[in-house]
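Q: What does the assembly look like in three dimensions?
Context provided by user:
Components: two
Sequences:
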Amino acid sequence: MSFDLDRYTLERVAHVSDALAVFCPPDGSQLREAMRYSLLAGGKRLRPLLCIAAAEAVGSNIEGVLPAACALEMIHTFSLIHDDMPAMDDDDLRRGLPTCHVKYGEALAILAGDALHALAFAVAPTHAPLFAQACGQMCQGQAEDLEAEGKSITLGQLQRVHAHKTGALLRASVLAGAYGAPAHQQSSLSHYGECIGMAFQIVDDILDVTGDDATLGKPAGSDLKHDKATYPKLVGLDESKRLARAAEQEALEALEIFGQSAEPLREIARYIVERNT
Amino acid sequence: MSFDLDRYTLERVAHVSDALAVFCPPDGSQLREAMRYSLLAGGKRLRPLLCIAAAEAVGSNIEGVLPAACALEMIHTFSLIHDDMPAMDDDDLRRGLPTCHVKYGEALAILAGDALHALAFAVAPTHAPLFAQACGQMCQGQAEDLEAEGKSITLGQLQRVHAHKTGALLRASVLAGAYGAPAHQQSSLSHYGECIGMAFQIVDDILDVTGDDATLGKPAGSDLKHDKATYPKLVGLDESKRLARAAEQEALEALEIFGQSAEPLREIARYIVERNT
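A: Here is the predicted structure of the complete assembly.
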């Protein structure tokens, strides 16, 4: 029987969404409402899924990694809220809804992002060193991305920006799930995380060119608007697709030391490259 | 021989400043430059001092709490950078220098704040639960403060706002310094932290009325400009001063279980109420 990623995802995403609502309950404040608006707006929940799938790969209990999985989604959401701000990427639409600052104003959006950032460390303090490092790299990547707008950069520089901006947190998601596993397993999963991080960003760049707003849930063509360096711009659409496939292949190879238990991670790697949203 | 707070402060602040520069070294990036600009701009270093003084009160080693002391200053600085943004308090001057967004632009200011927030947890992961809780309350307090602008609130509500906005991190500073100390000592220090937090905020409100830009290093009259609820506005200047003294007194009483080792904490409580900056 082949592995059913849709069903796997549905079950686990429901589990994560329930847990997120519990970790970030309403308290009557506007701030909390803004946090919940962005946190519970849906989305692919890719980081929690990676965390849980990595836990399953190394034979860990799903319940045990749920706080880490939720913390990762909080960190991801905090970064989206801040990146969408007018001073940054100036996006009005996210996950098919008005962005946090459009809905609640800029002041509350900054604070909702900050509070989700803090909540992540409250929920998963064990992973503070790993997550703090990933957050730092994410900020660094976003700053490099903004700095590169309108400039011509090399493919190596672009890969570096993306490794920081997107790759660091995806890698941390896998590593958090594999917390406590033997070193050689963690090392393989770390490499897997880096490869899918690269694949993810290449496909993101491709979708910004080929996708439409409704499917993406955010404005397509945003990279072009900001004159951002992207894979399609630097190496063309066909070569970008080839690079994404190569990164997927390398990710799958990194999982060779695992048996059937890593099937969810393998399917996620395939999904990342084949997705249209 | 009486205790010399100026000398005590000078020595420890120099120690903290050196450590901050090491924990946040230049890396050639603009983001790091913006982080260092705000982090190393001086300031009273009150939170690191409280952390170190609490460590001394319970007989702990100063070197051991230096990471926590630095993390507290990073968190404080991150909150200042974000609070100064145009969408929030819209202040141009901080610690006698142009604010981070005036110097580096809003995008980099948001990211520098975020990156300092993350760095704090990288530097002091042991304290993640304590610091994350304090950060969350700080964001909550800032949101409540903004929400209360132009509205009339009660003294009880004002105290609640300040307990979140300023008190939580001051209390966390003392508790981080007393990490590992016996429960009754921690409990006394927690109470001390709450009292000086209240005293600090009352005096801040008073100074906003009675101080001048040059001495404060930031614009005086900022609360009035934003039509903020303050102690002088709610209870008058004289009653505000009386409340600050009462909070100082309660803070000193909380330290009665300690001997000579808590002298720095006692002097800090006095300084908080007597300061003119």
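Follow-up: Residues 5-274 of chain A form a domain with the Farnesyl Diphosphate Synthase fold (CATH 1.10.600.10).
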